[in-house]
Amino acid sequence: METIYVGLLGCLAVVVIGLLLSQAKDGDSVAGSGSHAFYALRNNYVFVYALMMAGDWLQGPYVYALYQHYGYDVKDIGRLFIAGFGSSMVFGTVVGSLADKHGRKKAALLYVLTYAASCATKHSPQYGILMLGRLLGGVATSLLFSAFESWLVAEHAARGLEPKWIGSTFSWAVFVGNGLMAILSGLIASFLVDKLGLGPVAPFDAAALVLLVGGAVVARSWPENYGAGAAGGAAGGGGGGEGLVGTLRRQFAVAAGAILGDQRIALLGAIQSLFEAAMYSFVFLWTPALAPGGEAIPHGMIFACFMTASMAGSSASGMLMKRVKVETYMKYVFSLAAMALAVPFLCNVDLGPGLLARSSRRLLQAAQEQQHQGDAAAAGLFDSSLLTAEESGGVGRSLAGAAAAAAGAAVRGISLQGKIQLVAFCVFEVLVGAFWPSMMTLRARFIPEETRSTIINIFRIPLNLFVCVILYNVHLFPISSMFALCATFLAVAALLQVRLEKLIQQSAPPAFSYSAKGAAAAGAVGLRDLRGSREGDTEEPRSER
C-alpha cells in the first residue's frame, strides 16, 4: 500500500485527537442550573442517533452486492435505486410531514419499523419484493432526516434549555453517528459476511436488530412532542376531525407560507439543496476520478480517511459555534467546498461518455468474476460515507465495487493527479462534517416548530429529483464537467449564505422558531399577511418559555 494513504489517515487522526483534546481543555460552555438536564438529553439523543445510523451503515457495504448476488444486472439495479430516491421524494415527504401533526416520537418509531421491514425484504430474490424494500427505504430516509432532528429541537426548547447549547448536541451526534458508527458498522458487516460466512443478507439482519434496539430506547425514554399548533389537538386525540387529506393540505399550506413569507427559510432550503446535491453527486463520482484508468486504489483505506476527515469537521464545528456565529463561518465552508470539488475539473480528469460507459462495463465484468473473493464488498464501504446506506449504492456502488474488484489486476497505483484529488476530497469531507451540525443549528433557529418536519422534507424534494436525474444520466457527461457543476452549486450556496448572513444581521430572530402562528395565519388567510404576523411573533417564544 502506498504511503500516501497511511500518511493521510495518520494526519487526519492526529487532527481529530488534537481537536478533542482542545475541546477538553477549553471545557464545556454548558453551565448553570439546566446543565444536568442538558447532558441527560444530549447523551440520550446521541445514543439513539448512533443506533439509528448504525442500522443504516450496516447495510451500506452490501446493498449493491446483494442485488448482484441475486443475478440482477446494472440496469435492473439502477431502477431499484432510482425508485428509492423517488419514494423519498414523494411518499417520504408526505409521511414525514405527518410527524408534525401526529407526533415526532411516533415518526421515529415508524422509521424503525419501516427500515426494519425494508431489511426483511432483502431475504427475497424476487424483484417486486426488492422494489418494495427500496420504496420502504425511501420513506425511512425522509423520517431519519426530519423526525429525529425535529424531536430534539422541540424537546430542547420544552425543557427550557439554553438555545446555544443545541449545537453541541448536533456536533456530537454527527461525530458519533456519521463517523464512528460508519467505520465500526463497515467492519462488523465485513466480519459477518467474510469471516463468519453468513452471506450478504446477514448485515441487513444485524441492521434490523440494531434498529429495533434503538426503537425500544425511544419507546421507553422519549416523551412525545408535536408541532406547536398541533400539540393540543393531537394530545386530545381529536385533531378536529380534519382527516388525512385535510391535515396534509393544511401542513403543506402552512409550510409553503413559511418558506415564501420568510426569505431566511427559503435561503436555508436552497443552500441545503445545493450542498447536498453536490455531496450526493460526489459519492457517484469519486472512484472514476481517482482511478480513471482502473488504477489500484484501496477503497477501505480511503473510506477510513474520509470518515476520519468528517469526524474532524464535526469536532471543529463544535468549537467554532462557541466562538463564531454559525451564519458567519458557513460562507467559508461553502467556498472551500467549492474549491475542493473544482480540483478534478482543474486537473482535467475528463472521461468522455463513451469511455466511461465502456470502462464501467469492463470493471463490472471483473467484479462479477471476483465477487467471491470479497473485493466488491470491501469496496462498498465508502459509498455510504455521505448518504444513508440505502441511498448510496446505484452508480457509485457499481463503479466503486467494480473498480475495487479489478484492482487486483491493475498494474499501476494512484497517479500524482489522483493524489492531489484525494487530498482535495479529504478537505471536502472535513467540510461535510462541519456542514451537518451547523445546518441543523440554523434550521433549529428559523424553521417554525409547527411544520418543522414538513419543511425539512420539502427541502429534500429538489435534492432527490436532482439525484434521480444524475443516476439516470451519469454515463452521458464527462466526469470533470460534473465536478465543475458540483463546484458551481457550492459557489452559489456560498453567495446565498452571504445573503442569509445579511438578513440575520438586519433582524432579531428568536433563539428557537418555536411558534408558527404567523405561518399558520398565512396558510389560512393568504401569504400577503404573513410577513407582518411573523414580525409580531418574533419575541413570543422567549416569553412562552
TrEMBL record:
The entry's keywords: Cell membrane, Ion transport, Membrane, Signal, Transmembrane, Transmembrane helix, Transport
Membrane topology note: Multi-pass membrane protein
MF terms in GO: molybdate ion transmembrane transporter activity
Family annotation (Pfam families): MFS_5 (PF05631)
Positions of transmembrane segments: 46-67, 79-99, 127-148, 169-192, 198-219, 265-287, 299-320, 332-351, 422-442, 454-473, 479-498
An example Gene Ontology biological process: monoatomic ion transport
A cellular component term, taken from the record's GO annotations: plasma membrane
rRNA-binding as UniProt keyword: no
UniProt superkingdom: Eukaryota
UniProt xrefs under CDD domains: MFS_MFSD5_like
Gene3D superfamilies reported for this sequence: MFS general substrate transporter like domains
Subcellular location: Cell membrane
Primary subcellular site in the record, as a coarse category: membrane
Primary role: Mediates high-affinity intracellular uptake of the rare oligo-element molybdenum.
Protein name per the record: Molybdate-anion transporter
Source organism (scientific name): Astrephomene gubernaculifera
